[in-house]
Amino acid sequence: MRLATVPLACLALAVLSPSLSEAQADHAAHASHASHGAPVSGPAEAAFRAANAEMHAGMDIAYSGDADIDFARGMIAHHEGAVAMARILLDHGDNPELRSLAEDIIAAQEEEIAFMRNWLERNAP
Question: What are the residue ranges in the chain where pLDDT is below 50?
Answer without folding.
Answer: 1-34
